[in-house]
Amino acid sequence: MRFATASDLAAALAGGRVSAVELTDAALAAAERARALGAFVHLSPERARADAAASDARRARGDARGPLDGVPVALKDLIVDEGEPCTCASRILENFVAPYAGTAAARLRAAGAVVIGRTNMDEFAMGSSNEHSVYGPARNPWDPERTPGGSSGGSAAAVAAGVVPIALGSDTGGSIRQPAALCGVVGLKPTYGRVSRYGLVAFASSLDQIGPFARTAADCALVLEAIAGHDPRDSTSLPEPAPRLRAALSGDVSGLVIGLPREFFAAGGPAPAVAERVREAIAELERAGAKTREVSLPHAPYAIATYYLIATAEASSNLARYDGVRFGRRAEAATLGEMYRRTRSQGFGPEVKRRILLGTYVLSAGYYDAYYRKAQKARTLLRRDFEAAFAGCDVIAGPTTPETAFRLGERTEDPLRMYLSDVYTVSANLAGIPGISLPCGFADGLPVGLQLLGRPLDEATLLRVADAYQRRTDWHTKTPDPARWESAA
Amino acid sequence: MSRHPHPRYEVVIGLEVHVHLKTESKLFSPAPVRYGDPPNHAVHPIDLGLPGVLPVLNARAVELGIRAGLATHCKVHTCSVFARKNYFYPDLPKGYQISQYEEPLATGGWIEIEGPDGEPLRIGLTRIHMEEDAGKSIHDAAVAGADDTHVDLNRAGVPLLEIVSEPDLRSPAEAAAYLRMLQRILRYVEVSDADMEKGQFRCDANVSLRPHGETRLGTRTELKNLNSFRFVEEALRAEIERQAALLDAGGRVQQCTLQYDPGRGTVRVMRVKENADDYRYFPDPDLIPLRIDEAEIERVRRALPELPEAKRARFQADYGLSAYDARLLAESRALADFFEAVTAALGGGAKAAKSAANWIQRDVLQALGARGIEIEASRLAPEALARLIQLVEEGRVTAANARPLVAELLEQGGDPEELVRARGLEAVSDTGALEAIADEVIAAHPEVAAQVRAGEDKGLNFLMGQIMKRTKGKASPAAARALLLRRLRGA
């Protein structure tokens, strides 16, 4: 069953060929053997086994809840799950256990999914390599000397290594799609507001969105159906109910128009081998009946700058609550000011500090107009670029990342170069539109990701195209050799 | 009388008032708004600022905010924006307060107060915005120990309106009058209980001086947390004196925040402001802009009760009450309603209103005051007071005997007619019984009787008093007087 999809497991469970307890035990065992990957930061074997047994009991009574009932899953360590630790890979939240239920985790559990543990990430989702984690880096199953991407590196690695078929991550500027691309799995960032953020520890509130990692677009559809839909506890949650996505996976893309933004393929763009794989993938979709046309996103070159102004500004405020007063780590000191200083100096890692400093500066009196307000204007222009582009196409395609997975340590001393890993992904967050990355081949033995972007709330078309591609190709069935990390254990 | 209390300087005062809204739950969380709970019991994960929680705006608070805006003649905006005010403090759980900044709920209103000569003064309102309250830091050594501070978050997230006046006030007395009127209006429209002792109505004052005739504003100072009307006046007076002394000596006022010490009657500098505080305001990305359609604003406007000034004017016009009586009876909505119900039960009209006003002012308010309660908390039904007044007017009980019954009805409720009977207070007005007593009194005081017979009225009251004494006050004064005159003058 290893590397099986959730849909396969659902069929096996429904057919009585396997039990949820067996799947959970297998996932827990695989997680143990994959320790060297650093994908998990916490496992909950007892609760998971009890949940699996409950799932088997439901099924025996004829009360199975749907395709996810009994399927093992993992959650990124910033998705609040009542009664479980939630550290955001930060020292400042060491020992923090969530005392309330977050919506996405609660909905996934309500669908019967068995949560086996929590996955590694860049601290507070700030990073593109999973190296900024208090637990140490997560590693790429295709080459453990390389990054799995970030910030949801642990979730991507856990799915790529075949530990679980599904994991949730969060995507603020590419934190689902980029690691999905680098690890050769599918990662979906839904439309902003599609999945409730109640229980998603905030990095940048206007950009953050929870989404699934899976081996297939079809599995992403299963997960999104379970976790999406309006939530009255999130004021930015969209009113639309959870979409019916599986029915949309017809395999048919004939007549569909794929927009190719000239800015995503321009000189200085993706590495040649990456561009090559992406072009091949687009050609495959053309053979399936899709048409292509060039589109333009004239403000895309400003996306990275815009993103790092808005995201850091929001983060500087969102992270103010980690002050040592009510929860998390507190450094003792004689005065209040000193307590704050020590708590936050010791509790946050360097990348988080860098972004808090940058964001505080961006919002300061005298700089607000020049930076924050201007960035909001640029964001509006970028959103209009997408509206204009989607007037002439159904989806936009391009590379997810400029390059394949880089070596651990290669960019930690060069934050700006690290930030550029997100050059193709941040636009979707700024515009609030859905995006998906799916495996489309290899360059030098490392996975390459094809990114598709869709109209707001049109995850259905995005998933239909991705599913059609996967029906015609077998990249998503390629798996890394477990010996690469299990022998290293 | 001049509006200006100082001979050399014009005083310029603007007030910022924070008012707790009368809601069941907090501004952004479902936790209850309750006073007197044990610390940190009226809280929800949202109020604690736990990782991953999000605010959801309380629709009731918005309605109350609209009501306050309309009651103070503000323009209520169809779109306003919540912003984060960022600063660190232990009783501020998120490290920011959700407030409104560039786009507040309402702007540009006014309220009317009475000037020094009784003329109406219109005081401008700059803006009204909504925000959440912070928690409380408890430094009390008895609670927290000498070195520690404890934090109680029950108050964190309680909905507030911040109401900012224009610098239109010219004296401490005007400031106090403004606050009283604002409090009255907010209570009238049931936006807030506005109880200063419970911290539901808190005032900061900005004050500056300038030579008479100068148009530019002087440097202002800010007086913080003035928690009674008396302290507002005292603190402003102290600060005006302090600033005037500085200016008289050729000095300059430094911009600062001050605290009033009621024990010493002086102000103390808390903090000198070198630069404007930088709160790094920005629109809260967790909340969408607050959109209120015109129809909703109109709905709230139509449902607004009559405001104090309008009610006072109507009481004068419709019932012929004096300005003084009208103002007193319009003080609270409940009292005004009580007055109108008594008047109606007495058959309406100016005469009924005058009786109702007299009884309420003289007897009801006194009895309430003695018990420290408001009319809402009494058991005196307006119909009962009206009945008691009627009994007096019909001569069935004397006013002197009826008046103490007001307090009794206030505490226990009940039917005044039964009470009069049960107490044996029915007036003695049947002539047979009174005649015998009158004859006794005349016989006992022949000299006085002779004076009255000779046409002097002075003794008449004495003889009446004697009749009252012998009837234990139950004699109808009118009947007793008539009887004495008949007996002594044959009238």
Quick take:
The complex is a heterodimer of chains A (489) and B (491). Chain A is an alpha/beta fold and 489 residues long.
Task: Supply the key terms.
heterodimer; A: 489 residues; Amidase signature (AS) enzymes; globular; B: 491 residues; alpha+beta; 17 helices
**Uncertain spans of chain A:** none
Terminal CA distance of chain A reads 22 Å
Question: What is the makeup of the main sheet of chain A?
Answer: 11 strands, mixed
H/E series of chain A, N to C? HHEHEHEHEHEEHEHHEHHHHEHHEEHH
The mean pLDDT of chain A is 96
Q: What is the total tally of β strands of chain A?
A: 11
CATH topology of one domain in chain A: Amidase signature (AS) enzymes
The secondary-structure class of chain B comes to: alpha+beta
Q: Which structural class is indicated by helix and strand composition of chain A?
A: alpha/beta
Task: Enumerate how many helices of chain A there are, as a single number.
Answer: 17
- What is the CA-CA span between the terminal residues of chain B? 54 Å
Physical arrangement of strands within the biggest beta sheet of chain B = 2-6-7-10-1-11-12-13-14
Helix content of chain B: 40-55%
CA-atom Rg of chain B in angstroms: 30 Å
**Count of DSSP strands of chain B:** 16
Q: What is the CATH level 1 assignment of one domain in chain A?
A: Alpha Beta
In one word, what is the shape of chain A? globular
Largest sheet of chain B: 9 strands, mixed
Q: Give the C-alpha Rg of chain A.
A: 21 Å
Mean pLDDT of chain B: 92
